[in-house]
Amino acid sequence: MSRLGIFVDRKTLANAEQLTALIRCRDVTENLGHHAEFLFPTDISRIPQMDGIFIRTRTDPMNIAYVAAQMAAFHSIPVIDDPGSIRICSDKINMYSHLIKNGVAIPKTVFIGKEDLTVDCATRLFDTLGTPLILKEPSTSFSLRVEKVDDIATFFQVARRFIKLSDWIVVQQYVESTYDWRVGVLDGKLLYACKYTIPSVTFKIQASVNGHIVYCGVESVPECSVPPKVIRLGIEAANAVGNGLYGVDIKNSNGDACVIEVNDNPSIESGEDTCYPRVFEQIVTHLLAA
After folding, report:
1. H or E stretch including 212?
2. Whole-angstrom Cα distance, residue 55 to residue 79?
């Protein structure tokens, strides 16, 4: 019998949907004949006692979850998410660079620094990428610090705010759509697919509108109903990052599919897996295969 450590924090368990998904993961693990237990940050010293680690809390290099991932990797314990995937996906410059290097389709993208915050540069960006532009601060997550700008004045307002937080800013072509595809990939294979329907009051899957958080709608979609090129693109994007678990966000506008984001540690608690009942079984088997 193998032991799976599910690394969480109190914020994770405070969300009813996440807690339900974690209990389901635990039950699946035990039904497969293994033992599962929740590990909190105070339990981090117990990681070497586990045969696999499944991180289910926010992952970035400044979070304790990254320390957990590094500890698991140091002891040669299979871990989702692995440290390399965390480093790549937590930095959009790094992530898009991997996608570009591997020939993965993304919106037209330019990286700019402080020295590029000039009227001439802003004008060229609008001329080259179109209007509006999307500006992203590289360490953003959950659609924070992602803004749409329609003119040079707004461009400078947002860019000057972002450049205080990072040496670089991602500037992208705006791709309009009413929904994003989310393709879940594990070890280079399709794990699940769903549609994230964008709220009409925003262009993001999560946003603060008039002081209230609005979320995208989630619709699980069976593989046979997903355009094959969307699945192929999702797998290509995931493979450009690693062989772990990823959620790849794709826009398929007018038949031209492009990757918007590759997320390590993707959500699996909002119904993404409704049409894919073996998601947790596949994850547990992947981690405890040895």
Report:
1. strand 212-215
2. 7
**Residue 244 contacts by C-beta under 8 Å, 6 or more apart in sequence?**
80, 81, 82, 85, 186, 187, 264
Cα 28–289–233 angle (5° rounding)? 85
Q: Which has the closest alpha carbon to 217: 247, 244, 179?
A: 179
- More confidently predicted of 74 and 271: 74
Cβ–Cβ < 8 Å for 150, 86: no
Return the closest-CA partner of residue 237 out of 39, 85, 14, 15: 85
Mean pLDDT of the region 257-271: 92
Q: Which two tokens stand for residue 259?
A: 């990757």
Q: What is the mean pLDDT of the chain?
A: 91
**Is the separation of the CB atoms in 6 and 284 below 8 Å?**
no
With 0-12 / 13-18 / 19 or more C-beta atoms within 10 angstroms meaning exposed / middle / buried, residue 283 is: buried
Taking the C-alpha atoms of residue 48 and residue 161, their distance in angstroms, rounded to an integer, is 42
Do the bridges between strand 79-80 and strand 217-220 make them parallel or antiparallel, or are there none, so unpaired?
Answer: unpaired
Strands 212-215 and 179-186: unpaired
Q: Where are the domains of the chain?
A: 3-81, 109-173, 176-264
Please tell me which residue, 145 or 149, carries the higher pLDDT value. 149
Please report the pLDDT score of residue 207 as a whole number: 47
First and final CA of the chain: distance in angstroms?
11
Q: Encode pLDDT of 51-91 as tens digits.
A: 999 999 988 888 899 999 999 999 999 999 999 999 999 99
Question: Tell me: domain 109-173, CATH 1.10.10.10, correct?
Answer: no
CATH 3.40.50.2300 fits 3-81, yes or no: yes
